[in-house]
Amino acid sequence: MTKARLSTLVLLLVASTPAVSRADMGLLRTAHPLDEARGYCLDIAGFGASLRLDDPLQAHTCKYGSELDDQRFEPIAGGAIKTGIGDRCLAATALEPGAKLVVRSCTSAPTQRWTLTWGRLTPDSQRELCVSVASGTGEIAGTPALISPVYRRRDVTLERCDDAQQARQSFRWSLPDERTISSANVVRTGMPPDVAQQLAAFGTEFDGEIAGQTAKIYASQPRVYEAGEIKITKNLAYGPHERQQLDIHTATMRRSERPTPVVVVFHGGGLVGGSRAATTNVADYFASLGYVGVNGGYRLAPDAKWPEGARDVGAAVTWLKSHAAEYGGDPEQIGMMYWAATHGAMVLELAGKLPPGSGRTLAHAIGQTLQKGLEPGA
């Protein structure tokens, strides 16, 4: 099949506008993802009680699974497209290039009559004009605190239909299975079957070689954040030893005007092995949510005797109390995440190892332990 015929087939699949019941209102989204894997949907600006119903519409990251009405539309008789909010319909401010899209009280005006054919959403009386998403990269837009990656938005207008701009001028209705996906992110739909099969093949044992193979399996999987959302400041020393270093991960897009909590992760390895390379993704994740993520190292046995590991954790937290504000962190809200039972003991020992004046620094501790031989419910 030629590229031209394949392109025609793709457009044919999104060309029709099937009847949609009022109980099954959909999202009117871009047929191509552009720079947003979740797609861009026509969206009313604002949120909840602060919806700006008189402002121009925008193309915004699709919020699948949401009960909000700011992205819900349905085609009704006569070519109108009605919103989920009151008696308002999709309208153009004028039937000319550059005109904005809005939602207005439903009438029979030509500016409210639409046709979705071959993926193009056009005014019924001006088929040479297409609803178009602005070019470039979407800007960050009103992302809730625990949603990652960030939401994006672009302007949307009427423009001359142009085959060269097909990606920005192609729309379709959302599919039923898309509407049930979490509003957080489309990748949060469970472990892919092929990944589950590969992991199961490792059996119940786990070592460094298997850890490396596991990382390779996940390398090509979608993440809940994008690499460009994270800035990493590496190898910050909190002590003289080469392992007494921290990497600080901060957000490039989701930046708070106020100091944010700091989440420190220390790698596993039973105090005799491991490195910060194993926990980079954990610090990345917390940074993607707008926190300050810290990936910490510490000295290992047998060179470092117990309780030197606990002292290193204490020294790292104390260093952060003095420097967290430089990276947007709150020095009074430092939490620690650790792996394995030995690290739990390290946290308990930590309480007696912090220097005077820093006793209230460690606000939270989150432990994750892997143990073999436990039956469900044990």
- Total strands: the figure is 19
State the shape. Answer: elongated
Biggest beta sheet summary: 6 strands, mixed
Under CATH, the topology of the largest domain can be stated as Trefoil (Acidic Fibroblast Growth Factor, subunit A)
Which structural category do the helix and sheet elements fall into?
A: alpha+beta
Please provide the ordered H/E string of secondary-structure elements: HEEEEEEEEEEEEEHHHEEEHEHEHE
Summed up, the helix count is: 7
Task: Describe the model.
With 378 residues, this protein is of the alpha+beta class. The chain folds into 2 domains: 177 residues, Trefoil (Acidic Fibroblast Growth Factor, subunit A) (Trefoil), CATH 2.80.10; 144 residues, 3-Layer(aba) Sandwich (Rossmann fold). 19% of the residues lie in helices and 27% in strands. It has 7 helices and 19 strands. The strands form 5 sheets. A 6-stranded mixed sheet has the order 14-15-17-16-18-19. The longest helix is centred in the last third of the chain and has 16 residues.
